[in-house]
């Protein structure tokens, strides 16, 4: 995806919806092995919200994180090059201070981010009533290796 498109900042209502959906998505987590619930929500430039939650299996490395669970169906349902811009992502867990996306998810988010400024909002045990941590994908994954590096090798 093009790296010049900057995700415009979110309105108060959009952030409230994004956060609420990520927090609500925790209820759908399938995490009988860790009991660590994670919910995620992605806001697209189309105005659509897509949620995901972590899904574990008995063979533990096979499970998937909430963030990738939210993003993969978006990518898999839209023909290239029509990919909408991801404007923001929210992640919710039951711990405070809030957890941040794992390394694998940072790499996955980076793949589909059109800007290093893509904001990631993190919510903890008190949900909307608690503290929120906001960081960009560029801050979470500095010196990243991404699609542009593959292009540079052509
Ligand atoms: N998990 C996520 O869903 N997202 C993250 O960014 C960190 C970890 C999940 C994976 C596993 O189901 C559980 O949390 C404990 O690691």
From TrEMBL:
A matching Pfam family: dCMP_cyt_deam_1
Superkingdom of source: Eukaryota
GO molecular function: cytidine deaminase activity; identical protein binding; zinc ion binding
Residues annotated to bind Zn(2+): 65, 102, 105
EC number: 3.5.4.5
Active site: 67 (proton donor)
Domain CMP/dCMP-type deaminase: 13-148
EC class (word): hydrolase
Cellular-component GO terms for this entry: cytosol
UniProt keywords, alphabetically: Hydrolase, Metal-binding, Zinc
Family: Belongs to the cytidine and deoxycytidylate deaminase family.
Known role: This enzyme scavenges exogenous and endogenous cytidine and 2'-deoxycytidine for UMP synthesis.
UniProt protein name: Cytidine deaminase
Biological source species: Exophiala xenobiotica
UniProt lineage: Eukaryota, Fungi, Dikarya, Ascomycota, Pezizomycotina
């Amino acid at each position: 995806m093009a790296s010049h498109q900057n995700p415009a900042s979110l309105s108060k209502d959009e952030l409230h919806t994004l956060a609420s959906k990520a927090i609500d998505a925790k209820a759908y987590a399938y995490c009988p092995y860790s009991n660590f619930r994670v919910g995620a929500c992605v806001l697209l430039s189309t105005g659509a919200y897509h949620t995901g939650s972590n899904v574990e299996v008995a063979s533990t490395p096979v499970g998937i994180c909430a963030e990738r669970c939210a993003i993969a169906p978006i990518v898999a349902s839209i023909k290239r090059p029509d990919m909408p811009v991801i404007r923001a992502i929210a992640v919710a867990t039951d711990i405070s201070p809030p957890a941040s996306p794992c390394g694998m998810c940072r790499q996955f988010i980076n793949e589909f981010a059109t800007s290093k400024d893509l904001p990631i909002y993190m919510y903890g045990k008190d949900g909307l009533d608690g503290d929120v941590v906001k960081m960009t994908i560029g801050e979470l994954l500095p010196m990243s290796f991404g699609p542009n590096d593959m292009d540079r090798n052509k």
